[in-house]
Automatic annotation (TrEMBL):
Protein's organism: Rhodothermus profundi
Domain Glycoside hydrolase family 3 N-terminal: 45-363
Coiled-coil region(s): none
Residues annotated as signal peptide: 1-19
Annotated Glycoside hydrolase family 3 C-terminal domain residues: 404-597
Protein name listed in UniProt: beta-N-acetylhexosaminidase
Pfam families: Beta-lactamase (PF00144), Glyco_hydro_3 (PF00933), Glyco_hydro_3_C (PF01915)
Amino acid sequence: MTMRLLSVLLFAGSVTLLAFSHRSGAAHDPSRLGAWTETQLRALTLEQQIGQLFAVRARGVFQSVDDPEYRELVRLVEEFQVGGIIFFRGDPYSQAVLANDLQRRSRLPLLIAQDTEWGVAMRVRRTTSFPRAMAIGATGNPDYAYAVGYVTAREARALGVHQLYAPVADVNNNPFNPIINVRAFGEDPLFVATMVRAFVRGVQDAGAVATAKHFPGHGDTSIDSHSDLPILRFDRRRLDTLELVPFRAAIKAGVRSIMTGHLALPYLDPTPDLPASLSRRITHDLLRNELGFNGLVVTDALEMQGVTKHFGVGEAAVRALEAGADLLLLSEDVEAARAAILQAIAQGRLSRERIEASVRRILLTKEWLGLHRERTVDLNALPYLVGIAPHQALSQTIARASLTLLRNANNLLPLPDIPNAPRRLQVVILSDSDDPATGRFFVQTLREIAPEDHVTARLLDVRSHPEEYQTALRAAAHADVVLVPAYLFVRSGTGRIRLPDRQREFLDALIAQGPPVVLIAFGNPYMIMDLKRPPAVYLAAYGGNTTTQRAVVQALFGQAPFTGRLPITIPGYFQRGDGLQLEQVVPRLAYPEEVGMSTRRLYRIDSLLQAAIAERAFPGAAVAIGRGPAIVWLKGYGHFTYTSDQRVTPESVFDLASLTKVVVTTTAAMQLYEAGQLDLDAPVARYLPAFGQNGKERVTIRQLLSHTAGLAPFYPFHRMGITSPEAVQQAILSDSLIYEPGTQARYSDLGMIVLGWVIERITGQSLDQYAETHIFRPLGMRHTGFRPVGRPDTTIVPTELDTLFRHRLIQGEVHDETAWILGGVAGHAGLFSTAADLARFAYMLVNEGRINGRAFLKPETIRLFTTPVDPERAGTRALGWDTRSPEGYSSAGQFFGPRSFGHTGFTGTSIWIDPDQQLFVILLTNRVYPTRENRKHLAVRAKLADLAYQAIIGPPTLNLDTLLP
């Protein structure tokens, strides 16, 4: 068993990726390797041995038995007896099914390979797509490289792939390199070496073969070897200090395969037009003899122009073997190549021993992989191994950590939170392709944060006409901010990775026009070099997969930090290591695994809520669960009523009932306390003189907040003939105590109503006005507020069918009768909100009072108001908040910690926060529909809290151990 401890940085804190063991059953004790290999080698004819040297192309898509492509592939496996398959585009099941089919048809197990530089998703849909290598480099953390290698290998093995054509070990020190670019980890050879070594170990610890490429180094060329032969005029001294450094590291790390590149190095081998892949001096003398590599040497594709421009099919194959290669990739004609090899043996150019040496390495590799024991994969295991939430969480975490903010004029980022500062955002998507879907996910994700009418978008690509550029320019002139996501990617065979002239001219004009431009390099980070002047904001994202696009949108609005550092130099603009650092300021939606929770365990919440609705505990519910910087569960369940077709969503507005006490009244008291305007130990009568009668003269603010003021719990004013706000106020202010203040706690609506009036007297504002200005707007709670009575609203989740007082369905008006009499605004009830809005409120409390980059409340204030005031006499009561009961039933369930605090509401609402776990759980229901007699929701509250807590699998950070099934 090999064990590895990974430590990574996530947002502002330290993240530990826990130790885990290599669980692949494929590899075994190297000292026992070879017996199967030698047996098989002796049994092969010369032609069969030569067949093992070839790896041919396959697509992992469905093909009928009559498909010519499939028939040819079967022929090559059964008759030609190729040694390997290289899968290109496909989907998971089709590829795995085809891999199994071919393995069963093959005399010897096939060595199946695939390009997986940024995950299996590079070739296979619906698998995990990781950020590009340069993005991993921008995190500065080799443990991420290890983790990506490990997870990619796990998914690859599940799909029947054994050999990964990754990592890229090239050092991209040429800004105009058209084919490597973001495929490399960076420009510093020692740094690249560190990343390569980590990636290799990750792949091979997971039981697959890593392939370092493209030897001896493809990073410093402006020619794409897919279309021509690059000539690198570097001497040995230069190679030793730059290009060869990562390959030496890979070899030291035990890499089992190296791919040679189609690169001519005349100082090493002066033979004209001879690529390294066909050069004995480079492959055999340098790689094998001097660097000591004894593993599998794989050629780059022999169909590439870097070879075919100067050599025929047969000669290329023979020369590759003469050079020291073992596997011949993608020969254009395997029969012609085999015939040339047989002829070279007959002529003495190649010996049988030379062929056997390569076949032995190939068979040893298959034996190391365990293919002699089991060559097929379990199709039933795919959904549990490929594209799963923990893998997606790793990708999302790396994407966030990689974002490199290089310019931020006038501190434009983070953009103000949309609820607080609406802005007109113009999105101009630049693409060097003709794919109409380019940028669509970016805009879709943007509109999940910004209201749709705030965002307009247009795509400019290779199909766009000049007038479309002018139209975009005119539209952008009226925007507050112009976002330009630029998708400029490495594309094999194009020979270029630069902005098209028309797009460059457009960008120059756009930047000069006026409104600030945010230029996002979803691809080539060097693109800024083509511009006459820099944009207001320049952000390097290095790639355009969905996790990267989501990370960018979150970071633009402060939902994620900027922590990346540039792993390259951008001449004339930025140095390696540059990168502005910005903190996260508001919560983001995230995979549970990003913050140490389990998606699979949280799925039990679905069953809980669906069963509760079926048992008529409530018609509908909304749940928000968060931890640390993230909201990990935000879902709606059921409908507005048992017969309604209006579904509940996280944005559905609920009557919060007594959650008003903590969200508004207590929070306002905390703010006024911090401002020195509210003395907790002052008598209430100091602020509200009319309260100081009938024995209440010495009742304090602290006692109101802790429900120890001696006041009655409530009065049914609506049944007492007291139906005006003035009458209610008079009744409460003139009421007498029912017990000695401070001697016990009795939950009281009246105390919080009084505190609401105190707040109004201090601030000179009505409670709803104060809350809107000082709480909801700063927190970005755009769907939260008090509602006037007498104005039903069918867009709001209904509460009770009132047959006694108001004689109608209560929908959009406060359910609590006293709050209704008071006009819908009271300190104890009347607030309406959504699960999404309350998640922002809870995030602020979990984040020690910080939100939007500033202190909304002080940490010490939160601790003061959430600590029990007097456990012996007041029980669990804190200031405004309740705390978890140490015994018996608690709506916080069994597992929330001793410092937990929360509150519930009569309509079926609750919020609980465990500061030690940085966990919050919010449940909104309308359990009072159709009547208040229902109490089935009580068990659901506690069970929900338990399920949320039981989903915790580690600290609020990414835990690599969860990546293993």
